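Recall the central idea of this unit: under ordinary conditions, the amino acid sequence of a chain determines the structure it adopts. In this exercise we apply that idea directly, starting from the sequence alone.
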Amino acid sequence: MKSENRKYSVCFFGTYESTFPRTRTLMQACRLKGFEILECHRPFWENMKHKFDMFSVSSAVKTGLELMRIYAVLALRYLRLKDHDVVVVGYNGYFDMFLAWLLTRIRRKILVFTPVFPLYETLVEDRKYVNPDSLKSRIIHWIDEKTGALADLIIIETETYLNYYSREFKIPKEKFHKIPLGADEKNFYPRPSKKQSLTPHQIKVLFYGKFIPLQGISYIVKAAKMLEKHNQLEFEVIGSGQLTPDINRLARKLNVQNIDFIEWIDYKELPEHILDAHICLGIFGSTPKAQRGIPIKVYEALAVKKPVITGNTPAAREVFTDQKNAVLCNVGDPKALAESIVFLKDNNPARESIAEQGNKLYQKVFSSQQIANKWEMVLNKCFQK
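Accordingly, the structure predicted from this sequence is:
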């Protein structure tokens, strides 16, 4: 048994996205607790612009051969690695889990999986890339079942996700531990904006993210159209993706004049866009996936001390109180979203109070220090068994 003051040695293994917030915040948690970080990593996913194209028949063989080459390198590197306590397979490491399980059985190490969301939920249920009745769908479902079974423990974000993951893929609840995604606090923290792109009387409403079903971007566009008569309001929508053609068609059809669409910005520029905004938007899709998680953009806005409007979902209700530390509105409802935006536009004291209370909630529950404390507790429990 290890004492609770033990400084663990943690190996981050596989093809995980090194820039993804879950990876960043877990590594930061290790640093805050004085844990040693070892990386046995080869980049792969961050080099793919459209990751889910790999599930097409034409790409599967090429992707598989490239992964096999990478896995041979990773296996040799891992077996030569110095002693450590825990192996973490980060986001997008679904396929890494099979090799990681074999290697951790050889070296008798605890295997932690941080999937963020199941492949099946994203590819089949939400984005509908794959027919749910197809063989491909069953294979993807099996991958989620098997990776969950191979893990010694799984880090997940919300109770809603925990219940879904356990039920859908028949994984014991005891394997799951809740740790929020958090934000990269080196970049996302309160400070004056250098951008100052609006006049003092204007209100900027910001959305950024992938154009995928769970985001509910069509409802944002429709809400913006409803609010065109409010001359003070300006919308900035940053992103692109699966639904870009549909969103562009919708904006043209409605002749929306108050949205500035920006396809892409560098990650380093993102904090300034948030700091320049008065209201930040979360997710408003009506898909099942939208009900289960809290998007990274919400954590980032809270960290920067901006008021957030997001969907009134079971996951959001786990942590937020409506009109206290966030504004929760009905998902799939542009009228409700428009009304929430007007509420914050017309009520400066409420806007400031919700921003303040949202940031306090962030510091109390979602901050790097809180994530570090939760991560340490998870590891202590593992080694006390």
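The radius of gyration is 21 Å.
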